[in-house]
Fold this protein.
Amino acid sequence: MKLDVQTLDAKKAGSVTLDDGVFGLEPRKDLLHRMVRYQLAKRQAGTHFVQERGDVTKTTHRIGRQKGGGTARHGNGSVSQFRGGGKAHGPRVRSHAHALPKKVRAAALRHALSAKVASGELIVVEDAKMKAPKTADLRKTLGKLKADNCLIIDGNSVDENLSKAARNIPNLDVLPSQGANVYDILRRHTLVLTKQAVQDLEARLK
């Protein structure tokens, strides 16, 4: 599959041939859903914690008489019925991450890239470098490319001027090729790849 290559000024700069095994698949929503759930679960902190009965320091003496009080028989003040008592079955510190096979993760990334191609939301540029770290210049560039809400993926490293200029622009992410992932690709409307990023992703996913 061939796709036109543009410069950052939205001018033609030749074409590039995309690997159908990476960019030409029929997108599978089930794979994309599984991968997004995997990523979001893995990033959860899991630091939620409440004190349960064993964590609360309260009296352990019998509260009231065993019989004749007219109420339930309680032998400890740390139960959840009493004020200051521990919560029953409360959240504990734990990891929310779950396993997902490596082949499934790689396949999900292929289908995410293919989904962007199928929907016409993929732009390939010659390179992603700026002469100066100016946010206004980058806004104009994105306007020419019609990519106001986008993810820019470069090669092994991201241009420092581009990275600095993108900090103050909402709905814009910049990543190196090794940081490409399904969630960040799908959460932005447009995917902008440099020619080097295309080569890196094809080498990684073939």
Q: What stands out?
A: The mean pLDDT is 93. The two ends are 15 Å apart (CA to CA).
